[in-house]
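Changelog-linked ticket: N-(iminomethyl)-L-glutamic acid example.
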Amino acid sequence: MKNLKLIGPFTQILPMTGLSVKGALQDGQLTVIDNGGILVSEGKIIKVGSFEDLISDTVTIERIEGEQVCLPGFVDAHTHICFGGNRANDYAMRNGGRSYLEIAKAGGGIWDTVTHTRKASQDKLVNGIVQRCQKHLGNGVTTLEVKSGYGLSVTQELKMLRAIKKGNDTVVQDLIPTCLAAHMKPKDWAGTPTAYLEHIANDLFPILHKENLTQRIDAFIEESAFSKEGIRPYFENAKQNGFDITVHADQFTTGGSQLAIEFNALSADHLEASTSKEIMALAKSNVVAVALPGASLGLGCNFAPARQLLDAGAALAIASDHNPGSAPMGDLLTQACVLGSFEKLTNIEVLAGITFRAAKALNLGDRGNLEGGKLADFICFPTGNYQEITYHQGQLKPGKVWKNGVKVGDG
Ligand code: NIG
Ligand code: FE
């Protein structure tokens, strides 16, 4: 085997292996490897085990000093980090007591970001992605999903998705692009929502395939965006053309998660409004439920019912929803820890939600835990006790980050 490298010793390695994708998890189920090492070659993990046992004449050693807890690199399965402008004024108005509708009428909301994103050049959008990814890297995120959805025309959505592709070539992380042209009906579209969706499906979908820009289609199902009935032909078209589906579902009103299940979507994201009916249905399905605590914190509203979802047997991932409107913080670990505290999630449920369960939401089988054959994406925190990671609620930062076996961050 070429270029065998042994990285360690880590005081503890949490490989996050042998755990169910669905349902509640107890901390007692967590495998902890004491004084562990990770053997890597050509960007992949060969073996994870006792550091001493992995030492041999044929390996070079990358030695780790001091107490360190090692985990899989975090996966942020839902972001909108490609955008122009910011919405500080929306935030101030919201905290001043103005409603979502009033803010939209006053020129804020998603359309404000559409206006600024349309004005921005592709290069400017790439720069924004690069800056935000730098911050996410410092928080241990090695894979991010990134949505379009602030272009809302064929040309402008293409500009965003090309910027995301270029961003992927530029940043350390892997960026997984998603087309969210169905974020809202653009205000400058004179026709019906149905005609807009037909136009996108007919004129944008073929280019997405041709330029290899994305295989994922998302829609915002909400009274202020698209109806369940309205989006059905759009999703049918997407499925026939081989795209995977993901849904902004049950954020303020229910309906979206049911559609996600109907279309066998990879994930249903938000779920703040889900009731026991939606929770039971999600638990029976293979759709990953994605909680977005950053949107609850940004909007000052309730969290998704994460505890109930897990107890019912659902797969729960946690993502940042990093966007300029509802979730400007963009700190996945902090948000996952806060959700864990309010929703009474075990450490392992919090960490599963941002590692292998988040990878499942993106249909990525090659990452999210540490075992032979997986990508050598991992991070370590300067502590000897993994419990301190959630305890410090995101303020304990990973000192070191490896992407494809190469150290890319060293704090
Ligand atoms: O995921 N819910 C709709 N879309 C985004 C918000 C985007 C925005 O307000 O700019 C979300 O929260
Ligand atoms: Fe979102």
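Closing comment: Example verified and attached. Residues 122-138 form the longest helix (17 residues). The chain has a mean pLDDT of 97.
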